[in-house]
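We close this part of the discussion by returning to an individual protein. The amino acid sequence and the backbone structure tokens for this protein are reproduced below:
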Amino acid sequence: MELRNPPDERRKELVPVVRYAVQRKIDKSKPDYWDYATLLELAVLEGNKETAIHALGDALANVREQWEPETTARNVRLIRETRQVRGDPTPFEADVEQALGRAAALH
């Protein structure tokens, strides 16, 4: 929805719903990389740097396989590149993408 041109406005309605579902899962069970990666991507979509950095730390602490942060870095890159083309960049996205890339290289 974010990658469309123009972006689908309904995406703004879905972010809180997805966040709620993920947070419920985290609260009820043992969270894994994907739970935190989802919160990270939601924060990137919202342009919320503070939340993104917090979720990034949680995600990186739970990496099990190299492809996990690679996949999330790819998603963040797609969002970043799409927003750059639209003239709507969020400066911290590249930092998140790089941190994920470094984590993938370590695994």
Q: What stands out?
A: Helices lie at 11-28, 33-46, 49-60, 67-86, 92-106.
